[in-house]
Amino acid sequence: MRRRIGLLLIPALLAGGVAACADPAPTGRVTVIASWSEAPGNDGTESRDTEAAAFVAVLDEFERRTGITVDYRGTRDVSQVLRSGVDRGSPPDVAVLPRLNDLQTYVHSRKLHPLDDVLGADRRPDLEPQLVTLGGRVYGLSVNVVPKSLVWYATDRQPALTRRPPATWEELVRFSAGRRTPWCLGMGAPPLSGWPGTDWIEDLFLHRWGAQTYQAWTAGDLPWDSPQMREVWQAWGEVTRAGRSTPNALLTGFNVAGLGMFAERPECHLDHSGSYIVRDYRREAPGRFDFFPFPPFAARGGSATTTEIAEDVVGMFEDTPEARELIRFLAGDRARQVWREASGGLSFTLNRGTDPASYPDPVSRRIAETLTRDTLCRDASDLMPAAMTAAFHRAVLHHLDDPRDLAALLRELDTVRERIRDEEWLDLPCLTR
């Protein structure tokens, strides 16, 4: 029977790893950890309206098809729990990692198994964008993608945005200029509060300076106190200064802030959030929301054809027949179909064979279409070493609390950058579709 665990999962839970079966036929068990944790519902039972429920539906289908039992454990802090299991010598067979830099850590320590022969040399071309290659070998399989370069609004309050959304950042700033509290902003996201602010900085940087400079920054080659970075933080300051965003943004949950758009007297008008926010909008204001792509700066010209994404990537930590079978299943069409249907059309993929028309409603179809654009760049804080990411999270919170000394803040971030060894940085290119 699969054990499903809530938000609090201590590292000791991984101490009793499952031994691989001597029989090469994959009929035993496979242990899996991921960041999706089922939360109790109002009646004390497990809620099925969660990201965890969609992933569990995929695992259930895998069990039915193979006879392999899945021992799934959910935790919001995959990195810490995985590290504990690896250090104890009892890692899970398979882990779904929300931070790409963690892959590199375990490749260097030889704790992660390559997937080249698991997925086969004759794998279909539509799978290629899902493969994460390090040092010439495949170590990760992207199974779930969150497009982040999205700006949301209430359609009944902002009909002009439906007719003609801002084509540049400067147009967006002008649109918001005449509105009291235009931006919904919430930094609360335990245990990693601050990442909604890093998403802002990343999107601004990507759409101001382009993919090549963005890659140099995420690889640790661009100083934090560079002119490019200062301009981006100053642009964010225009969004967050007094009266321009949600009051008490430091204490407001990221999934709550945008709901103010739908109040009888709107508390804010625009929300910069990834595709995950649709679940909350559907509950609060079904049929009353839409989005437009985060626009480029006028200095770059062109249209909004660059999208920041976050990925959940599967890695294999124990090479067993059962783990291999699960990896192959997650790479297949049936897993993507089950995940898409069980998530209500909110599980997205880099697989080239997925038709946006297969999604159930106009909003989810348009989100899927953003993944067919020219350039997709991975979340910068997911690529950075853990120490740099933690400092980045703290910096956005500090800047919101006291924006007066940006220069000193950026110098502190650069001090962290300079102390990190070169081999800890992950240099993954943006994806060209």
UniProtKB/TrEMBL annotation:
The keyword Repeat does not apply. It holds the Pfam family SBP_bac_8. InterPro entries: Bact_solute-bd_prot1, SBP. It comes from the Bacteria. Keywords: Signal, Transport. Residues 1-22 form the signal peptide. Belongs to the bacterial solute-binding protein 1 family. This is Carbohydrate ABC transporter substrate-binding protein, CUT1 family.
